[in-house]
Amino acid sequence: MSRQPTDYLRAICLALPEAVEKEAWGDPTFRVRDKIFAMEKRGDGRISLWCKAPPGSQMVLVGADPERFFVPPYVGHKGWVGMRLDRNPDWDEVAVVVKRSYGLIAPKRLAALIGRTSV
Length: 119
Fold this sequence. Notes:
The chain is an alpha+beta fold.
């Protein structure tokens, strides 16, 4: 039995310090100290990951690969980026995007435990 995208994403997110999963809006969200750093979304017919991104990264990622990255509704105007998970993603790259978002959301002490990673 093959693993589903949610299984891979869950493993990546829950490996981070103090990360927890909580369902919201019918989808899994991943949080640190009750602040969301990653969300899996399925409502629009595609499986995707939404994460916080550093200033300017959203434009760079979406501009470089609009088939894989997109500006998500509701949080896109705050710089969050969407990443397709239903098109055979590179899970190492997904982990980098998730860790970067975690580093932006988590308290500094926790973020320091994972180090800084860039895409």
